[in-house]
Amino acid sequence: MTPTSIPGTDLTVHPICLGLGDFGTRVAGEAALRLFEGFVAAGGNFVDTAHCYGFWVPDGLGASERQLGECLRRLGGREQVVIATKGGHPDGGEDYPRPDQYLAPVVVSCDIDDSLDRLDIDTIDLYLLHRDDPRVPVGEVIEMLNSEVARRRIRYLGASNWSTARIAAANEYAAAHGRRGFCVSQVHWSLAEPKWEIGPDPTMRHVTVADAAWHEASGLPVMAYSSSAGGYFAGRAEESYGTPTNAARRERARELARDLGATPAQVALAYLLGQPFPVYPIVGTLSEAHLAEAMGAAEIRLQPAQVRWLRDGDRP
């Protein structure tokens, strides 16, 4: 698939984004370098990390950004890679203590300081707020982030796990005041719907039917995390996705995969790529083979009728 520009930006990206949640911890050193090198060799250039990634491992806070910085230095590819990272996360317990006002300008500014230092770069291409704080007016959020744009520490803005209503309000404020608004929403989305009652974090958001309609109307892109549903389409993650609706969708993905000469996991990613607005599936993997499989999904073009059939079961 030919790389395309994220609407409203000059960032040109391959549609499959490499998620680096386990970078520097579960995959590190030479293994991380090989994985990253394979991603770039396959045409990948879009990566997603965060200030908090790795904190759940002893001494792991910041490991993902540091490992990415090391890969960029060793491969000499900073100019070829679009870096998305996130800050402004709420308290994570004793391993990631945070102030109550986690979207305060001083807190986000310190997060950006850390990320720039770990990544060993001067400017972050796409900076996302990891969570919303509804106590903070959207105007204050937009003004805070635009002050960082003015300092040339970040370029474009995104929202992670924000409601579409809050994103819409923030972008309305930005348009009315001549400020830069959010150009992308990062949210949980896959062909399989999660069983939220056993989810690890109640602040995580999933794309609903209403959300998808809003994105179609607005054209705002989605960076979809958990896009492979934890391997559900390869027969795993039953504890998180094992429902009759998802089982039926998985069977349809298997049927279509046989017809296309693809894998069910590739079809599930192609479902996201086939939406009527830009979607960038985030793929996190420790395996070079699984990464190559995911990158192959970008070559599958599903028709709108096939996308609807995968979701609803209505024969095209």
What's the arrangement of secondary structure elements?
Layout (H helix, E strand, L loop, with lengths): L3 E2 L6 E2 L3 E3 L9 H13 L4 E3 L14 H13 L6 E6 L17 H15 L4 E6 L8 H13 L3 E7 L3 H13 L5 E7 L20 H10 L3 E4 L12 H4 L2 H17 L3 H10 L5 E5 L4 H9 L7 H9 L4
Parallel strand pairs: 3-4, 3-10, 4-5, 5-6, 6-7, 7-8, 8-9, 9-10
Antiparallel strand pairs: 1-2
Helix pairs in contact: 1-2, 1-10, 2-3, 4-5, 8-9, 8-11
Features:
316 residues; alpha/beta; TIM Barrel; eight-stranded parallel β-barrel; two-stranded antiparallel ribbon; 11 helices; 10 strands; 14% strand
What is the topology, as strand order, of the major beta sheet?
Answer: 3-4-5-6-7-8-9-10
The CATH topology corresponds to TIM Barrel
Report the major sheet. Answer: 8 strands, parallel, barrel
CA gyration radius, whole angstroms: 19 Å
* CATH secondary-structure class: Alpha Beta
Strand content: 5-15%
Helix content: 25-40%
> Average pLDDT across residues?
96
Report the oligomer. Answer: single chain
What would you call the shape? Answer: globular
Within CATH, the superfamily carries the name NADP-dependent oxidoreductase domain
Order of helices and strands: EEEHEHEHEHEHEHEHHHEHH
Give an overview in words:
Helix 1 (29-41) runs parallel beside helix 10 (288-296), helix 8 crosses helix 9 and helix 8 packs antiparallel against helix 11 (304-312). The protein has one domain: TIM Barrel. By secondary structure, the chain is an alpha/beta fold. The protein has 11 helices and 10 strands. The longest helix has 17 residues, at 244-260.
